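Q: I'm building a small set of examples for a reading group on sequence design. Run inverse folding on the following structure and report the sequence directly after it, with nothing in between.
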């Protein structure tokens, strides 16, 4: 019986011992979304303040684990009045729920550089499982003033319903219930000393 409990514990320890952390390069990354207004036009938005990291034990990152947080108060749709409304209790209620998070549970290869990431998305105090489409570019090794750096890129898309997270009661004829999630990120592999500081 003890052996049954020890096996997953050993596997988890082995992953942690071998895992490498990849930190997001925020100057070359974006976390955003798109909704449809009046069933006519698309409105784009993004979160100006966010953080993300990828953890993987395999060199090709085929076992990647994604962690993302975004500050809801940093929401930006290029319209100050609309941004204020989105942060209000009518939608995100940013004062009460200031953070949006995503943590992946699985990362499965579809074909080539295409993957499916399944994980928990939490916003407005509600956590729901979501499935995202991911395209991975790299990893590659670049020369820089700091020496050689390993980098990888991810393009992430997915669809959710705002009603699943109780985000607003505005009719879908005004603002679509379906929200397209869009994120693109460039990540740099951290050496042991940098990873420990994080």
């Amino acid at each position: 019986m003890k052996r049954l409990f020890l096996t997953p514990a050993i596997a988890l320890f082995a992953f942690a011992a071998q895992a490498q952390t990849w930190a997001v390069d925020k100057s070359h990354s974006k976390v955003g979304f798109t909704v449809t207004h009046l069933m006519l036009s698309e409105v784009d938005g993004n979160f100006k303040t966010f953080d993300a990291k990828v953890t993987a034990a395999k060199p090709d990152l085929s076992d990647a684990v994604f962690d993302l947080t975004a500050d809801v108060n940093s929401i930006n749709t290029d319209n100050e009045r609309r941004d204020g409304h989105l942060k209000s209790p009518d939608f995100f209620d940013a004062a009460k729920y200031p953070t949006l998070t995503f943590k992946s549970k699985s990362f499965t290869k579809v074909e080539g550089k295409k993957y499916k990431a399944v994980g928990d998305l939490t916003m407005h105090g509600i956590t729901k499982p979501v499935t995202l489409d991911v395209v991975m570019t790299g990893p590659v090794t670049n020369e820089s003033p700091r020496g050689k750096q390993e980098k990888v890129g991810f393009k992430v898309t997915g669809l959710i319903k705002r009603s699943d997270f109780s985000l607003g009661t505005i009719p879908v004829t005004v603002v679509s219930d379906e929200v397209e999630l869009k994120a693109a990120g460039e990540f740099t592999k951290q050496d042991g000393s940098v990873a420990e500081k994080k």
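Residues 2-18 form the longest helix (17 residues).
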